[in-house]
Structures are given as C-alpha cells and as structure tokens.
Design a protein that fits this description.
Layout lengths: L10 H16 L9 H22 L4 H27 L5 H27 L3
Helix pairs in contact: 1-2, 1-4, 2-3, 3-4
Length: 123
C-alpha cells in the first residue's frame, strides 16, 4: 500500500472532488437557474465534503481527523437528501439521479472505511 503524504493522495478526497464537480455541473441547468437557495446549499454541502477531508488530514491526531471525516460524512448525507429533493422538484432528471446517488453512496462507504481505519490506530 502506498504511503499517503498529502490529502491529494487520498482516493476518498479525489472522489469527493469529482463528485463536487458533478454537483456544480447539475446546478447550472436551466431548471436551477432561479432557485438560488437550493443551488447554493447543495454546492456548499458538496464543497464541505472535500474540504473537511483535506482539513482533517492536516490535523495532528487521528481523533481530530475522524472528527472532520464525521462532518464530511454528514455533509455527504445532506447532499444525498438534496439530490432527492432536486429530483422531486424536477430540477434533476430521474435518469441522472441514480448515478448521483451511486457516487454519493460510494463516498459514504469510503468515508466510513477511513473512519474505521483511523479508529483502529491509536492517538
């Protein structure tokens, strides 16, 4: 296994970055042009996922890192909830929703796996 020296080396951060990009792309649609509150909230929540992973990585202990990963996990679930709402409001086509939910759930399991790994380490 390769040594992780920078947060950019973490697969979960790379996937969160990609997911954030996709969220930004879906929020540029005609349907979302006028719902500024929805667009802003889902964007901020998706940014929070990747930023909390990187910020936690820079902390001095696994306990602190886990705390930031917990926040990233909560933000990820917020995005998931908003994706469903976006679909209900016809902002997000049903054809795109399934893929977005799959990406979201992959991130969820990656975050949980990293939290579990850090719990097994002491400090």
């Amino acid at each position: 296994m390769a040594t992780i020296k920078r947060f950019e080396d973490l697969e979960v951060w790379k996937d969160a970055r990609e997911f954030t990009k996709v969220v930004f792309q879906i929020t540029t649609t005609e349907e979302l042009k006028t719902d500024f509150a929805f667009k802003d909230q889902i964007r901020r929540a998706s940014i929070s996922i990747m930023n909390n992973i990187s910020e936690g990585f820079g902390r001095y202990s696994n306990k602190d890192f886990r705390r930031f990963l917990d926040i990233a996990t909560a933000s990820n679930l917020e995005v998931k909830s908003m994706l469903y709402l976006g679909s209900d409001l016809k902002y997000i086509p049903e054809s795109k929703l399934d893929n977005l939910i799959q990406q979201n759930e992959k991130l969820h399991y990656q975050l949980l796996a990293l939290i579990k790994y850090l719990r097994s380490k002491s400090n």
